[in-house]
Structure formats: C-alpha cells, structure tokens
Amino acid sequence: MNRRAKRSTRSTKLNRRAEKSLTMAGEVLEVLREYLRPAMSRAKEFNSRSLAPITSVLSPLGFVLLGTAVLLWILGASFGWQEALLGAFMASLLLVASVGFILGRSEFSVELDLHRTRVAVGDRAVGALQVQNKASRSSAPAMMELPVGHGAAQFRIPRLDSQEIHEDLFTIPTQRRQVLDVGPVRSVRQDPFAILRRQVKWTDSYELFIHPRTTALAGSSAGFIRDLEGMPTSDLSNSDVSFHALREYQSGDDRRHIHWKSSARTGELMVRQFEETRRSHLALSLSTNLEEYSQQHAEEDFELAVSVAASIGQQAVAEQRKLAILTQQGPVRTESGRMMMDGLTRIEAAASLRENLVDVVRHTADTVPGASVIFFLTGTGTSAKALREAWMHVPSGVRAIAIRCESGTEPTRSSIGELTVLSLGKLDELGLMLRKAVA
C-alpha cells in the first residue's frame, strides 16, 4: 500500500508540474503574441503599401526573371563569377526597361451594357463597350479586357481626343446552358515581353444567364395539365365548392348547408353534400446523377431532361398552377418563371452521387404532399426496377409520369403498373408525347 501510495503521489506531482508547465507556456505565448502584434500589423501594412503594388504587376514570367536576377547577383558576388554578374545585370536591365511600359495614368469613363442578361441557348447575347476620354488631353492607345466566364475578350482602344467616345459591339456565344460572369472591364498595360502587367478595373461584373432551351406546350398540348388531373375525385366532403348531391341531415352537420326547399318538399331536413376539389400542383423530380443517363451521351441527355423540366414548368406558370421542382441538390425556387429558369440554369450534373432518382422522388413526395401530378425526369440509365421502386413512394391517387431522355431515340410510351413511362429523343416531341400520355 505504501509503494502504491508513493507512486500515486509521484504521478499526481508530475501531473501538476506538467499542467503548470503548460500554463506557463501558454502565458509566454500570449505575451509574445501581444508583443509581436504591433510588429505584425506594421508588416501587413508595409506589404499592402509597398509590396502588393509590386507583386500585383509581376507576371509569372516576371517572377521567374526577378528570382533569376537575385540568384545570379548572389552567385556572382559570392564566387566572383563574371558570367553570373553579367546575366544578373541583363535581367535587372530588362526588368527596369519593362517599368516604362506600365507607367502612366488614364482618365476614362467606361460603360458596359448587356442588351439582355437572360437569354436562351442559341439566342444572341449582344453587348456594348463604351469608352470616353475624360482627360483634357488626348489619350494614348489602350487595351481593354472583358472577362467572360473562364476566357477574356480584348478590345483595342485607339487614341482618343478629349471627351471623344469609342464604342465596340460584341457577341457572347450561347451554345450551352450556364451562368457566365461578364466583367469587370479592365484596362491593361504591359511590356512587349509580358514581364510586367498592370490592370485597372473600370466597371462592375454582371451575371449572364443562358437559360435551357424550351418548347411551347400550346396548341395540340394546351391544357395538358388539366387533362392529367383526370376525373374529379370521388372523395365526398361536407364543405367545399363542388356540389354533389343531397342527403338526410345528421347530427353535427353544418346548418348553413341545409337545403330548405328540398326539406319542405320531403318533410325531412336535407343537407348539401360536396365533392372534394384539388388544385393542380405539379411536382418535378429531376435526377442530376449522370450515372442514370446513357453512358455515351450522358451530359447531352441531362441537358434534354433540364429542357423538359423548363418546358413543363413554363406551361405550369403560364396556367398559374402550383409548381415544385426538386433535385439531388435541393429544391428549385419556382415563385416566378424567371426564378425557375434561373434556378434550372444553375443546376449542374455530377457522377457517382449517393442519391438517385428513387431518393429524389421519395423526398418530393414528402416535401409536396398535395401534389396531383409527379414527373420523373431521368435517363435510360434508370432501370425499370428503379422506376417501379420510385413509383412506390408516390401517394395513392397521384398521377405519375416518368420521362426517360435519350438524344436521338424514337419516342415511345409504355407502362409499369400505373406509372406511365415516356421515352423522349427530341425536345420538340414533348408536346405530342404528353398528349399521348393522357389519351
């Protein structure tokens, strides 16, 4: 017992010493931090004032040249190598000569005007760049850059007299659905070897939405949403707007629904009975998992599915129907047609997602309990078994239609139980296929 007690006492003392040492080390670090804080703030201020303007104008080639010059100066001074000193002198001379190309000040007024910030795939996105010389003297020729997405367009601005305006028109390609960051417009000064590069921003940036391509569901497919509702529901209610029949009064019935003329004729109290009415609420389950589309044209088939969702959504908005769109990435805002199209434009597909179409449909059924029609939008990579499993999550009495998108395939219609399955190869065939679905 004595040995155990001694060991316990020793370990307790060691723990206390360790805790005391850690506490002292923490206090020392705190003192050092407080002591070095002014120095660190001065270093940051020096970097922002002195170093940042230098490093911001150095291109990758400029950094290499500067590092080479410093290394050669050190080697030449340390070992007396004349070749190294000569190389260091030439590199330094080239750096100094490049400075003259980026010096100078421009007084421009730059305006960036996008004719439309929302276009559809294939439409023309036109903009204008207007540059005015605000200085009292003529300006030297300048180079303007306009970043567009991951690229940049260059505009050569000629020599402008005082208050003279130069305007350039440009067109942005819209081959694919995406959101492009356009701008800010910046003027660029650089030397012929692109060692130094000085940029000045003149405008803000804008977002250009290239919406998915859509097809009108008017004409032969007009009112397809109403057709999908089918026959009125047979559920009876004691209070609604759709009159059904008269029945005998029962205890607890609302007296406001008593039909007095029929009661007087039959000698018994008769009350009105109504059919429950449901307001159309469309729900779209759009799969963004590329594994559920064809292996050869997965991205192309996914774009077709997005266009189908946009077309059905536009028709629902035009008919003032309630609309919900859900994907693996979450719900798409559908408060207005513009919000819906912007949300569908931002959607991106990915491979090897943990969630598949079944998960999206289950989440849709839980999120939109009042849906009257649910669309499954997927590709040919989704098997019939997966479609049946997804349909099992659809509440009873809700119409379900699966649209499998595969570019170039022949349009077909089939059924899996009560689930209608449509195969779509072209967006223009959507209206006809929807009419067949309700035929």
TrEMBL record:
Q: Which InterPro entries match?
A: DUF58 (IPR002881)
**Which positions fall inside the DUF58 domain?**
246-330
Where are the bilayer-spanning segments?
Answer: 51-75, 81-103
UniProt keyword Transmembrane, yes or no: yes
Q: Name one Pfam family in it.
A: DUF58
Q: Among its keywords, does the record have Membrane?
A: yes
Keyword set, alphabetical order: Membrane, Transmembrane, Transmembrane helix
- The name on file for this protein is DUF58 domain-containing protein
Provenance organism = Glutamicibacter arilaitensis (strain DSM 16368 / CIP 108037 / IAM 15318 / JCM 13566 / NCIMB 14258 / Re117) (Arthrobacter arilaitensis)
